[in-house]
Design goal:
The protein is of the alpha/beta class. The chain is built from 15 helices and 19 strands. The chain has 3 domains: 111 residues, Alpha-Beta Barrel (TIM Barrel), CATH 3.20.20.20; 214 residues, TIM Barrel (Alpha-Beta Barrel); 90 residues, Sulfite Reductase Hemoprotein, domain 1, CATH 3.30.413. The strands form 5 sheets. An 8-stranded parallel barrel has the order 5-8-9-10-11-12-13-14, surrounded by 4 helices. It is globular. The protein binds iron/sulfur cluster. The site of iron/sulfur cluster has 13 residues, from helix 14.
Length: 468
């Protein structure tokens, strides 16, 4: 760690140092874990560990986890983005989902995550195999976003966009657009746009009968779009065949919805299309790997067209959908692949899909729309009620978009495990708290009851605080 710092390489070298000591003493009964609170760092660290183990002829099993993942939906999404990505890569022998909740809530999440793989090999055997890769241009140990053209507000340097499929009630009343982050005030005739407002709404072949906010693009099936008199605020969605034969296209964005297999055939044809955005979907059950393979093909063929990844889940309840979509999208976004996400389901409502989409982008740190909390699961060392304290801190700080706050039960492990946080609220003794700015302790020995006010005052001094 002294030589490589608090990085994936530092974590790996530190672990291997101890493994070598164990081996020198003839002890091989080892399982290795590279947990971090940031899923991107955790994924890179495990992959690097495996890579180094192969070089050194080691093959110890791996225990996977995202440490201090927090609670609720955020904790589950963050855990799936990290653990699920590695399981999809074929790495991992045991897992733990670490939640700031009662311990009995962790195991059901683990079971759901691994259950997905119990049938996977049978399904894969019946499908057309994913084409093999000989040249793999994505560095699995470092985050680099795939370079793409900027098409309107998609790709280039833009954060990944979010697509939503319209529900019927949205067509007739602006009231229902709150499900995707837009609150309409009839009194003021104004839109309030939240940090988790979708960027595009797919309407198929039905138009909305009121004016939408300018930040929300309308997407229609091409066959309907071509009939519109005013096409200025709407975009066509083409099938592969329509795209090749279309008489007319948009001069802003043309969405092309294709499968991974269609992409291999069309890639060269669209390679220099300045207005094309691919909506990429797959029919294969090992979806993350199949989509990753297709995106690699675009890189290798030098096709800089932005790609929105679309997944349609059926027969999944909201919990499974959350975990599996965080796995599928998370695995791609942590590798810098994908310029947007589109999540569909017949069983799960649009507002939940929208929340999950923004949750995945937050967990992969590709688009920040809320405060990030890193909180430990608590244990025998915990110096205060973790769940109550986390809820209390969230209530006062959840409007601080982009700020990372750690809530850790003890000073023994807390500071080391919140490496990624901007601020730390750490139990230093029964009824006592220490406050951190990054890794530096700023205030020690604060009575628990005063600690939240002190944290807010520290943020005010730093110019980070905003009134709600
Ligand atoms: S109380 Fe300390 S040791 Fe226990 S889980 Fe929290 S940070 Fe880890």
């Amino acid at each position: 760690m002294n030589r490589y710092g608090d990085t994936p390489l530092g974590m790996v070298e530190s672990a291997l140092e101890f493994v070598r000591i164990c081996e020198d003493h003839g002890f091989y009964n080892i399982v290795l874990s590279m947990k971090a609170s940031n899923p991107k760092v955790m994924v890179q660290a495990y992959r690097l560990l495996v890579n180094k183990m192969i070089e050194e002829n080691m093959n110890y099993p791996l225990h996977l986890g995202v440490t201090e993942a927090g609670d609720g939906e955020d904790g589950r999404i963050k855990s799936s983005a990290g653990i699920g990505t590695l399981l999809e890569d074929g790495l991992g022998d045991t897992i733990r989902v670490s939640l700031t909740e009662e311990p009995e809530f962790e195991l059901p999440v683990c079971k759901r995550l691994v259950r997905r793989y119990s049938l996977r090999s049978d399904e894969v055997k019946q499908e057309k195999p994913i084409p093999e890769i000989t040249d793999y241009p994505v560095d699995p140990f470092t985050y680099n976003r795939r370079l793409t053209l900027e098409v309107d507000k998609i790709g280039g340097g833009h954060v990944p966009v979010v697509f939503a499929t319209a529900e019927k009630d949205m067509l007739s009343s602006p009231e229902y657009l709150r499900k995707i982050g837009y609150k309409y005030s009839a009194e003021l005739d104004k839109w309030e746009i939240s940090d988790y407002a979708a960027d595009f709404i797919y309407l198929g072949s039905s138009d909305i009968n009121y004016a939408l906010p300018g930040t929300l693009g309308k997407v229609f099936d091409y066959s309907y779009w071509i009939t519109l008199n005013d096409k200025s605020d709407s975009f066509p969605l083409f099938t592969a065949q329509q795209y090749i034969t279309a008489e007319r296209k948009s001069f802003r964005i043309n969405f092309l919805e294709i499968t991974t297999d269609e992409l291999y055939q069309l890639a060269d044809e669209i390679s220099r299309d300045r207005f094309c955005v691919i909506i990429l979907k797959t029919n294969r059950s090992h979806a993350m790997a199949d989509i990753r393979r297709a995106l690699v093909e675009l890189i290798n063929r030098d096709v800089p067209v932005p790609v929105i990844i679309k997944r349609t889940y059926s027969k999944l309840d909201v919990e499974d959908l959350m975990l599996y979509s965080a796995t599928d999208f998370g695995g791609l976004l942590t590798d810098g692949l994908g310029d947007g996400i589109w999540l569909e389901s017949d069983e799960v409502s649009t507002d939940r899909l929208n929340q999950i989409s923004f949750g995945i982008l937050q967990a992969t740190r590709t688009r920040i729309s809320k405060t990030e909390y890193i909180s430990c699961p608590s244990c025998g060392r915990t110096q205060f009620d973790l769940q109550k304290t986390t809820a209390m801190i969230k209530e006062k700080t959840s409007h601080l978009k982009g700020v990372k706050i750690a809530i850790m039960g003890c000073i023994v492990n807390g500071p080391g495990e919140m490496a990624d946080a901007d601020y730390g609220f750490v139990g230093s003794g029964p009824g006592w708290v220490s406050l951190y700015r990054g890794k530096e302790v700023i205030k020690r020995g604060i009575p628990y009851n005063d600690a939240l006010d002190e944290l807010i005052s520290l943020m005010k001094d730093d110019g980070v605080w905003q009134e709600q």
